[in-house]
Amino acid sequence: MVLDAQSLGTEEGGVVTRILIVKMSSMGDQFHALPTVRALKKGLDARIDWVTQPEYEGLVRCFDDVENIFTFPRRNLRTQLVPFFHELRKQQYDYVIDLQGLMKSAIVAAVAKGKRKIGPSATREGAQLFYKEHAGKKNKERHAADELLDVVHHLGLPVPEEPVFPVTFPEHPGFGPGMHIAICPCSRAKGKDWPAERFAETAKNLLAQHPDAMFHLVGSPADHETCDRIATAIGPAAQNHAGQTSLLELGGLLKQMGLLITVDSGPMHMAAAIGTPTLALFGPTSPLRTGPYGKQHRVIESSFNPGKKKISKKTRQTDMRYIEAISVEEVATQARAML
Is the residue at 18 inside a domain? Predict the structure, then answer.
């Protein structure tokens, strides 16, 4: 956990409003919370602390509006949970706001000291039982970032017409002149991953019109082999960065790109937040809830229809028929229009 003791307490000339945000995972969810946090900070003239998981601590450090970070020890509960709660309870907040809505986040919010504790409008795992005050009524027929803004409405604060995502990543040295396009071909679910050969075909299609273009494959170390196959198929105009960058370095790299072509993934949300035009391919998942947020981005959604039979989320996440219904022609056409 990270605390800057000098930044806690009162402002000169008066008491500062202090807010604890509880939003622990996943990568995309962290970004979705940023417009809400900015509105709370401005509307209440507040200072913001954040509870996240250890793997996202570095990411949250890059969020402009966050001062102090607590890391929830989800993999070491036996030895670190009590010390975590002890440190958390040293602080007194005016508002403790759970933007996660899970049992673990509700417990953290319950333990924290706060004059007013607010749960999100959508909860799971019985988390709603921990709150007397909720941000609003459950409505899942909208984007997750819009849903999180319910607490801003609930508190009667101004809601920005154009939500912003205040995040600053370390500067990347850049790749020189020319057109630079990133490709993120992998996610955490097989059924969301467009076939590797189709990414390569799309890149070659774009090279025919933009011969100076350079393609940058991005992903985790586990994605390196897939990205290497794509880069090899594209040829000299491709570089494989998968597993070669930290999460923060990836943010700086994506900032240099003129376009990201991606599956439904964490880097998709990262690119959308920093303003890199993003073309996202959605197979079994719904872009209504978790598509790239912003008017400059585009989504190609699968046309596959399984019929009237209801298919579970788990099955859809491994069913390749959804993502394979998206053609190279569709992706290349949309990408050319965005370049």
Answer: yes
Strands (E) in the chain, as ranges, are: 17-22, 46-52, 66-71, 92-98, 113-118, 180-184, 214-217, 238-240, 259-263, 278-282, 298-301
Q: Which amino acid is at 11?
A: E
The verdict on 187 and 40 lying in the same domain is no
Output the pLDDT for position 15: 78
On the question of pLDDT at 10 being above 50, the answer is no
More confident site: 118 or 318: 118
What is the domain-level CATH number for residue 282?
3.40.50.2000
Is 170 domain-assigned? no
CB atoms within 10 A of CB 90: 10
Which domain does 241 fall in, by range? Answer: 180-338
**How many other C-beta atoms lie within 10 A of the C-beta of residue 44?**
18
Q: Are residues 142 and 83 in the same domain?
A: yes
CA distance 19 to 182: 36
Please determine, for residue 8, whether its predicted confidence score (pLDDT) is greater than 50: no
Per-residue HEC secondary structure of 244-297 comes to CCCHHHHHHHHHCCCEEEEECCHHHHHHHHHCCCEEEEECCCCHHHHCCCCCCC
Cβ partners under 8 Å of residue 302, min gap 6? 282, 283, 284, 322, 323, 325, 326
Tell whether 227 and 325 lie within a shared domain.
Answer: yes
Report, as an integer, the average pLDDT of 310-315: 74
Res 14: pLDDT: 62
Domains identified in the chain, total number: 2
Q: Is 36 exposed, middle or buried (0-12, 13-18, 19+ CB in 10 A)?
A: buried
Q: Are 241 and 253 in contact (CB under 8 A)?
A: yes
Same-domain pairing of 127 and 241: no
Same domain, 138 and 196: no
Residue 118 lies in a domain: yes
User: How many Cβ atoms are within 10 Å of 312's Cβ, its own excluded?
Assistant: 7
- The whole-number pLDDT of residue 9 equals 44
Answer whether 32's CB lies under 8 Å from 293's CB.
yes
